[in-house]
Amino acid sequence: MHISDILKSEKPSLSFEFYPPKADSAWEELYETIRDLETLSPSFVSVTYGAGGSTRELTHDLVVRIKETTSIPPVPHLTCVGHTKEDIDAILTRYAVAGVSNILALRGDPPKNDPNYDWSQGDFKFATDLVKHIKAFNESGRHPDPRGFGIGVAGFPEGHPATPNRVDELIHLQEKVEAGADYICTQLFFDNHDFFDFRERLEIVGITTPIIAGIMPVTSLSSMKRMAELAAGARYPAKLLKILNRAAEKDDKTAVERAGIHYAAQQSAELLDNGVSGIHFYTLNKSHATRQIYASLGL
């Protein structure tokens, strides 16, 4: 089933994202964490690449395993970094044979040890190029589903870090949608006003593609730095900072975590009350916080 089909349901989509662990020994633990989520019946789980595609094969293996051994639809990330058209076709063919139905198409981040990465090393410079190629794969009839893969792309409520011009940013997103994207999944954000404004601006330019909101609970002060790095400078509103700072003053190691989970739960509830198509939880490979939020939403 395509994610776009899931998003047509009256029940909002709730999903989780995981990233490849650095240690080989942690992959089995990650698989078990994902499999345990079956009791929640999530709409899907997504699996990212490592930076610069450093864990590509392990990501592919995990996606296929989730598809073959659980009832949770997997959505693998696919990036432009260093890929040739032949590489992408081989990956898509493997996923198609396994019955994987959806792809999240991203430009991706260059390798951390190569800040001057040459995008000409691969055949894809922008996410739009990748979307077009997946669309062409679909039209070739190589997927068992006559419609081929459902295609998701990224959206940035706080603005794309590489596109400070917000007008150009909307143009680029519109190009991805016109190239064949079925849905938009946003980068994490901590102020719902940013999401609501983003959604309105898309409507103004005629983009009516369903939007899934990306949420990540703050579970420690140290994790805030990690989140800012993942989201290329996420904006922490004063309200959230005050809540976390008050919690940090208590002689209780779990106080900050409880405060962060409560904030994210309120944020998620407000999004649902305002008709969001779905919520995508960035888990940092730890599902307990997002499980608590999920339970608090009464779904």
Give a short synopsis of this structure.
The chain is α/β, with parallel strands linked by helices. It has one domain (3-294): TIM Barrel (Alpha-Beta Barrel), CATH 3.20.20.220.
Task: Describe the fold and architecture.
By secondary structure, this protein is of the alpha/beta class. The chain has a single domain (3-294), classed as TIM Barrel. The chain is 44% helix and 14% strand. The protein has 11 helices and 8 strands. The chain has helices at 3-6, 26-36, 56-69, 85-98, 127-139, 166-179, 192-204, 221-230, 238-248, 255-273, 287-296; strands at residues 13-18, 44-47, 74-79, 102-106, 150-155, 183-188, 211-215, 278-282. The protein has an 8-stranded parallel β-barrel with strand order 1-2-3-4-5-6-7-8, surrounded by 5 helices. Strand 5, helix 6 (166-179) and strand 6 form a beta-alpha-beta unit. Helix 5 (127-139) packs parallel to helix 6 (166-179), helix 9 runs antiparallel to helix 10 (255-273) and helix 10 packs across helix 11 (287-296). The longest helix is centred in the C-terminal third of the chain and has 19 residues, at 255-273. It is globular, with a radius of gyration of 19 Å.
Subunit arrangement of the protein: single chain
| Largest sheet, strands/sense/barrel | 8 strands, parallel, barrel
CATH topology: TIM Barrel
Which residues form runs of ≥5 with pLDDT under 50? none
The number of domains: 1
Sheet-strand content, in percent, reads 5-15%
Task: Provide the descriptors you would attach to this structure in a database record.
299 residues; alpha/beta; TIM Barrel; 8-stranded parallel barrel; 11 helices; 8 strands; 14% strand; globular
